[in-house]
Each structure stands twice: as structure tokens, then as C-alpha cells.
Amino acid sequence: MQTASFAGFIKTLFYIVAFYYIFKFLAKLFLPLLVKKVVEKAGSNFQEQQQRSQDASWRKSNSNDEIIYNTAHSKNPRETKKVGDYVDYEEID
Question: Which of 70, 74, 90, 93 is surrounded by the most beta carbons within 10 Å?
């Protein structure tokens, strides 16, 4: 059976502290590069998805030979949906 010694405890404590500071130093060096790569990748994925969406909507609108008239100035405007009654409340002092 082995017994713990004070020298072994100090040695283990030194390794833990050294590992902590080495990890902290390397994180300062490499973490900004890693974050930059992730942000660039997310941006490029977003742009590709946006481009695919625009291409799909362009093909969809070209396939339908649909004519849309400006109905804002027409004589018989469409009736809007009635959602409910408007109730006016008064504040009582």
C-alpha cells in the first residue's frame, strides 16, 4: 500500500496549475481563429440558402404566367375580414 506524501501533493498541484495556464494561453491563441472560421462558415451557408430560395421563387414565379392588377384604385375594393367588434372602454376615476 502506498501512502500520500507532501512532495507528491505539491507535484500534482504544480501539474494542475501548469496545465491550466498552458490551456489558457493556447485558448487565447487559437479560439479567435476557430470562432472566425465558424462565423464565416455560417455566413456562407446562409448566403447559399438565400440564393437557393431566391432561385426557387424565381423559377416558381416564371412558371406561373400570372397577371396581377393593381386593385388599390379599383371601383369595387375587396371587403376586409371582420375579426370582431370594437369595444371602447372608458377609464373610471
Answer: 74
* Euclidean distance between CA atoms 88 and 84, whole angstroms: 13
Give the number of C-alpha atoms closer than 13 A to the C-alpha of residue 70, restricted to the C-beta side.
2
Separation CA 51–CA 66 (nearest Å): 23
C-alpha distances (whole Å) from 30 to each of 12, 26, 47, 52 are 27, 6, 26, 33
For residues 7 and 4, give the distance between their C-alpha atoms in angstroms, rounded to a whole number. 9
What pLDDT tens digit does each residue of the chain (93 aa) get? 677 899 999 999 999 999 999 999 999 999 999 999 999 999 999 999 999 888 887 776 655 555 666 656 656 556 666 677 777 788 887
List Cα–Cα distances, 23 to 4, 15, 39, 69, in angstroms.
Answer: 27, 12, 23, 66
Record the cell numbers describing residue 16, joined without a space: 494542475
